[in-house]
Amino acid sequence: MSYQVLARKWRPHDFDSVVGQEHVVKALRHALREKRIHHAYLFTGTRGVGKTTLSRILAKCLNCTGPDGKGDITDKPCGVCEACRAIDEGHFVDYIEMDAASNRGVDEMTALLEQAMYPPTNARFKVYMIDEVHQLSSTAFNAMLKTLEEPPEYVKFILATTDPQKVPITVLSRCLQFNLRNMTPQEVADHMAHILQVEKIEAEPAALRLLAAGARGSMRDGLSLLDQAIAFSDGAVTLAGVQSMLGVVDSSILVKLLRCLRDNDAAGMLSIADEMAMRSFSFRQALRDIASLLHRTAIAQRVPASISGDAEADSIRELAGAFTPDEVQLYYQIAINGRNDLHLAPDEYAGFTMTLLRMLAFKPAGSPVAARIAKLPHGGKPLEPPAPVSKAESAAAAPAKAESPAPAPAPAPAPKPKLKPKAPPPPPEEAKASPDEEEDLPPWVQLEPAEETIPPEERSADSEELDWQSLIRSAELSGLEWQSASRSECVELKSTGVVLKNSSSTLTFDNVRKSLERALSKRLGHPFSVTFQTGEVKGDTVWAQVNREEAAARQKLIQDFRSSGVVSNIINQFKGEVREDSVDWNTKPKPLH
C-alpha cells in the first residue's frame, strides 16, 4: 500500500479525536443527542483547522446505523457501518462535497439543487458540503436561497469558508454559524508528540515547538511540516534539522544580537548578520523572531511570572533587565517596520543590517535623568524660584542690571513674569510647608508664573478687583455658560453676585444661570449669585472684546506675513497679492479654559 501523509492518516473520525475545537464539538453533540438538528450549518475558520473534518463527522453522525444496522442519529458514530466506512473512504453516494472555487456558477448550483429534490439512495439524510462557499457567484447564491431556507426534510447543507465576510447576509441568516479557532502552538506540539509516539519516531521537544510555531494555528500545516521534517532529518526530528529546514535562526543567536545592541556593539551585530547570511538563514524570519523575543521581554518586564514556563525564560529575564520598557517598545517597532519594508531594500541582507543599525541610531541615552541633570549649568542644582518683589524694588534694581552686563558665555536670563497684586497670605500650616516644598522643586518649575502657585479656588474677589472680564475668562466656562456670560452686559458687579442684561431667552434659562453660578462660585471660593435682566445690550461685552482681539491679532499676522522676506519678494517679482479670505489665520484666543 502506498504511503499516506500524516495529515490524512491522522484525520479525526469522531468528535473525541478532534483537537482544539471543543466549543463546536460541544454544541454539535448536544444538538445530536436532543435531535435538534438544523438544516444548514456554516463552519468558518482559517485553513487546516477542521472544517471539512467536522463536516464528515457530522454526516456520519446523521447517517450512522450502528454495528447491527439498527442505530439512530448519534453523537458517537460507530465507524464500522456501511455509511461510516463509505464516508471515511470518500465514496458515500449521499454525502456530496462540492468545491465552490471550481463550481461557482449558477449552472452548477442549479444542477445541485435539482439533485437535492430526490430522496437519499441508501441513507437517512442527503448531506451537501460546499467548501469555500464565499467564492460562489452572486447569481449562484441567489439560486440557492429558497432551497437553503426550506430544504426537503431529508437534505442537510454544510457550508465552509475561510472568508465569511464575503458570504451574503441572506445566506448567513439561514445557517447556524460556528467559528473554528486557530490551534495554539502547544496544542499542535502535543498532537505531534502523540503521533510520533505512535509512529515510533524520536523527536526533540524544542523541534516540535518550532514546527508548531511555524504551523500558524493550522493543524494540517503543522502535520505537513512534520512530514517534511521527518524526511529532512532522516527519521529523527531534531532542532538543528528543523532550523535548517525552515531557515529559522536559533534563539541563542538572537539573544547575542540583542546583547550587542545593549552594549552598543555595531561590529558585533554586523558579524552575527554575516554569519546568518553564510548559513542562509531567512532575514525576514529573523526579524519576526526578534519581534517575538522583544514581545516576550516586554511581558516579562510587566508580569515576570508569566514567562515561568517559557523554554527561554532565563534569556528573557536577562533581556528584561538589560533594557528599559521604552527601549523594548522602540526596538519592537523598528523590527516590525523593518520586516514590513524588507522588500523595498536592495536585498534582504541590506534591509536586515539597516534595521539593526537603525536600532543603534535610535537607542535612547543610557544615562539616568539624575546624571544628565548633573551635566547642566549650575551643577544640576535646582534653581530657587524668584521671590516676589515690590514695584519700588523692581524699579531700583533695573538700572543696576543695565549697568552690569552679563558675561558672554552665560545665557540671557528669562524675563520675570509680571506679578498681580498679592493674594492673601496662606494659613500658618501652608506657610510653614512652603520653604521645604520650594527646595524640592525641580529646575523647570521656576518657569511657571508665581501666580499659578495660588489655586484659583483660593483667590478672592479682591485679588481680581471684581473685574468681570478677567473673572469669566479665568473661570472654567464652556458651552451655554460661556455664551451667556460673554454675550451679556454687566449691569452691576459685587463681591456676592452680578446682575447681567441679555436679550436672548435661551442664554438666560434657569439651568444656565445655576450652572454659571456654580462655576463662578468655584472660581471665587465663596457663594456667588447671578441675576439676569431682559433687555437690549447696549454696553460693551466680553464677546465683543474677544472679537476685537481676534481682529487685531489677525491684522498683525497679515502685516507680519506681508512684510516677511519671502512673501514680499514673491509679491514684488510676480506682482502677486495676499488674498486674506483664502487663509485660515487660526488666531482666535482660547478664553474658555
TrEMBL record:
It comes from the Bacteria. Residues 376-442 are annotated as: Disordered. It is an enzyme of class 2 (transferase). Residues 406-428 have a biased composition (Pro residues). Gene3D superfamilies: 1.10.8.60, 1.20.272.10, DNA polymerase III, tau subunit, domain V, P-loop containing nucleotide triphosphate hydrolases. Residues 37-184 form the AAA+ ATPase domain. Pfam families: DNA_pol3_delta2, DNA_pol3_gamma3, DNAX_ATPase_lid. It catalyses: DNA(n) + a 2'-deoxyribonucleoside 5'-triphosphate = DNA(n+1) + diphosphate. Transmembrane segments: none annotated. GO terms for biological process: DNA-templated DNA replication. One of its GO terms (cellular component) is DNA polymerase III complex. Its EC number is 2.7.7.7. The keyword Oxidoreductase does not apply. Keywords: ATP-binding, DNA replication, DNA-directed DNA polymerase, Metal-binding, Nucleotide-binding, Nucleotidyltransferase, Transferase, Zinc. PANTHER family: PROTEIN STICHEL-LIKE 2, REPLICATION FACTOR C / DNA POLYMERASE III GAMMA-TAU SUBUNIT. NCBIfam families: dnaX_nterm (TIGR02397). DNA polymerase III contains a core (composed of alpha, epsilon and theta chains) that associates with a tau subunit. This core dimerizes to form the POLIII' complex. PolIII' associates with the gamma complex (composed of gamma, delta, delta', psi and chi chains) and with the beta chain to form the complete DNA polymerase III complex. DNA polymerase III is a complex, multichain enzyme responsible for most of the replicative synthesis in bacteria. This DNA polymerase also exhibits 3' to 5' exonuclease activity. This is DNA polymerase III subunit gamma/tau. The lineage of its organism: Bacteria, Pseudomonadati, Pseudomonadota, Betaproteobacteria, Burkholderiales.
